[in-house]
Amino acid sequence: MTPERKQRLKEVAFRRQAGLTVILENVHDPHNIGAVIRSCDSVGIPEIFVLYTEPHLTEDHILIGRKSASGARKWVDVHYYTGLDACFRHVKEKYQRILATHLGEAAVPLYGLNLTQPTALLFGNERDGVSEAALAYADGNFVIPQMGMAKSLNISVACAVTLYEALRQREDAGMYHVKNPMPGEQQQALFEEYLERSDQKHKNRKAWRIDPGE
Hints:
By secondary structure, the chain is an alpha/beta fold. Helices cover 39% and strands 15% of the residues. Helix 1 (3-15) packs across helix 8 (184-197) and helix 2 (30-43) runs parallel beside helix 7.
């Protein structure tokens, strides 16, 4: 490994945002999943959660989407669940709140959110959006302002828009630099993990189901 490559991995690891993640509920299109993973890597998210409660959806959808992820799959952990409660219990243990993209009476515009707080962003599938069952776990709803005839954005586009607003706020707050809330020992551990992952054997990392049998 060249010194330049090693330094790049260290910079990426030390900029990761432990207090920001994405939950994808029943997203059908593997290319959308791949695009979301790529966006997550781009803004410094180290892990995401994929929730499949529809029986025809499997971890193969995540693997197929690796081309859309453009190599980012190696650097973003995917926690794969088939049970609502198990998934959201895991999220709630690590993140302060869950905000869903849902057009409801209490929904607030994206640009009114404080995304420097520990937050999990919940996105639903291409057809139905976030389910009522998943909304029961959310602490709030938000919408992306739109000025055209279309009332919604593609899931991967909506996720990218939201994540880059989070990046803007966190960059302004210095959270990618000296004010990064991730403890130094965790940053170092992540850097060492990335050194190991840089080996080609980790090229196509599998998303393992965490809640077998539910």
